[in-house]
Amino acid sequence: MQEKITIVATITAHAGARDKVAQALKTVERDVQGEPGCEQYQLHVNSKNDHQFVMIERWQSAQMLAQHEQAAPFKALVSAIDGLADLQVTALTAVA
């Protein structure tokens, strides 16, 4: 059985770039929902800092996550926010 992967991606928009970054994130959230192996892909915003977004992702396996990282929606997001935001990604697995 393959181990499920949870991703917490924190995206902090630079000053003046919040709306562009938010739109790109909303687009990728919509487009990724149907990707194989995607169990959750949900966008949140920090209630105390509206320039900081958090994407909570859940994937059936590391292989499915790797496929997502090569898919058009993710590549479009990376291109759209390049130079407009800082990205920090944390990969998690459940404690047995």
TrEMBL record:
Protein name: Quinol monooxygenase YgiN
PANTHER family in the cross-refs: ABM DOMAIN-CONTAINING PROTEIN, QUINOL MONOOXYGENASE YGIN-RELATED
Name of a matching Pfam family: ABM
GO molecular function, one term: monooxygenase activity
SUPFAM superfamilies recorded: Dimeric alpha+beta barrel (SSF54909)
Source species: Kosakonia oryziphila
Keyword presence, Ribonucleoprotein: no
Boundaries of every ABM domain copy: 5-95
UniProt keyword list: Monooxygenase, Oxidoreductase
